[in-house]
Amino acid sequence: QHVDTQWLSSPSDIIAFRQARLNPVTAKEFQCFLSLRGDLLENGVLFWQEVQKYKDLCHSHCDEAIVQKKITAIIDRFINSAVPPALQIDIPAAQAKKILEHRKELGPYIFREAQMTVFALLFKFWPKFCKFRSSADSDKILLALERERSKRMRKKE
Predict the structure, then answer these.
(1) What residue stretches are annotated with the RGS domain (predicted)?
(2) pLDDT digits over 26-36, tens only?
């Protein structure tokens, strides 16, 4: 669908990226890495994870009320947040509006377009993260990221 450069990556890169986001340690490291690069990027990782959980719920054929609660929780946290800005992930306003209009429709695809948009954005940062990760001791990645975050916070003050 997209004719952007991120889709020209090898299928193995895309698979590795998808698998890494399912690994809790790597996902947390990537989330911290992204937090240093933009306000909404970190939320993108969380959104992707929550949508995966939502899709798992749909495929498990659980009670419709539980599925609807999950839809509402995702929308309230990322699409129409009470905490400004209302849109807590980097997707077009039209995509957010479409999700809000279809929020009562159950099924695994309500967040599909938004998840693909977030995936494409996050994937742009994946090579930089891999390079950073390869240059740090595996047990000290989060510590290095926290130090970087502290430095940036001090500079802002």
Answers:
(1) 16-122
(2) 888 898 899 88
Task: Give me 116's structure tokens.
Answer: 């693909």
Structure tokens at 149: 């975050």
pTM: 0.81
Residue owning tokens 């009320």: 65
How many Å apart are CA 96 and CA 152, to the nearest integer? 31
CB 45 within 8 A of CB 32: no
CA distance 51 to 114: 10
And the tokens for 126?
């994946």
Residue 73 CB partners (closer than 8 Å, separation 6+): 50
26 in Cβ contact with 45 (< 8 Å): no
| Spatial contact of 120 and 4, defined as CB atoms under 8 Å apart | yes
108 versus 76: the higher-pLDDT residue is: 76
